[in-house]
UniProtKB/TrEMBL annotation:
Organism: Ectopseudomonas mendocina
PANTHER family: HYDROXYMETHYLPYRIMIDINE_PHOSPHOMETHYLPYRIMIDINE KINASE THI20-RELATED, PHOSPHOMETHYLPYRIMIDINE KINASE
Pyridoxamine kinase/Phosphomethylpyrimidine kinase domain location: 17-253
Protein name: hydroxymethylpyrimidine kinase
EC number: 2.7.1.49
Length: 264
């Protein structure tokens, strides 16, 4: 039995975004800010800027398994965060990895589109997540467009999507950034029937990496042993602050500022 002498370790299975707004860089920064250690395993490479994605390549299954096995053999993983998987095969690879981590909280960010709208996986990847991965997950964190794809309800409300998806997953956080309400309504649904709505001020602009920031923060909070509802509330609050303080380093979307300026 390993005796942990480090901050809680979160295994991140996500894609790489070369402009550093989303993907593994978002995971690492957000987890550092929670007081966790990120163990980043690459699932896919992307070509993109702050405007949109132009290409991506999913890594071979063996490479992802080898990365995850190296981490699991050495570190004591306290939570897992899933980001871009990119293919149905990668969904099954993640299931294989999770067999080595029974009982470890799993936060699934069902990434199918980049912030600029470009595809990061076919809708079939989302359906495979719903059918196979959701049962192994603690919570999924889709935004409303992702929830509509997963639920196959193109014009569905958050409530309608949740009703369709809750048989597959224990907890579902549907974020409201793409909603049409004046304020942002983030809705947490649980299979036991409980529901929480977290309202925050709508910020102007478009952001690149907000979903990654939220999901990895939540995985970090669960790794720290926090209870789910308060972990969700704190993660939403932290993510909102990273968007309020976001920077615009390029021509396109804003990038969340996940670490304080005086971090170093
Ligand atoms: N993961 C990767 C590798 C990405 O490139 C992106 C978006 O471009 C995402 C995830 C999703 O980003 P967001 O957090 O903006 O939904």
């Amino acid at each position: 039995m390993k005796t942990p002498t480090s901050r809680p370790v979160v295994l991140c299975l996500s894609g790489h975004d070369p402009v550093g707004g989303a993907g593994l860089q978002a995971d690492i920064e957000a987890l550092l800010a929670q007081g966790c250690h990120a163990a980043p395993a690459v699932t896919a490479l992307t070509v993109q800027d702050t405007v949109d994605v132009s290409d991506f390549r999913v890594l071979d299954r063996d490479w992802v398994l080898a990365q995850a096995n190296a981490i699991i053999d050495d570190l004591q993983v306290q939570a897992v965060k899933l980001g871009m998987l990119g293919s149905v095969e990668m969904v099954d690879t993640v299931l294989e990895i999770m067999q080595r981590l029974p009982g470890v909280p799993l936060v699934c960010d069902p990434v199918l589109r980049a912030g600029g709208g470009g595809a990061l996986g076919k809708d079939e990847v989302g359906y495979a997540m719903r059918e196979r991965l959701f049962a192994a997950s603690t919570i999924a964190t889709p935004n409303l467009p992702e929830a509509r794809i997963l639920a196959e309800l193109p014009n569905g409300s958050a409530d309608e999507c949740a009703e369709k998806l809750l048989p597959y997953i224990r907890h579902l956080l549907i974020t409201g950034g793409h909603g049409d309400e004046q304020e942002v309504h983030n809705r947490l649904y649980s299979r036991d029937g409980s529901q929480h709505t977290f309202v925050c001020q709508r910020l102007p602009g478009n952001y690149h990496g907000s979903g990654c920031t939220l999901a990895s923060t939540l995985a970090g909070r669960l790794a720290l042993g926090q209870e789910l509802v308060s972990a969700v509330e704190l993660s939403l609050d932290y993510t909102w602050r990273t968007l309020r303080d976001a920077e615009q380093p390029g021509r396109g979307q804003y990038i969340p500022r996940r670490l304080p300026l005086d971090f170093c």
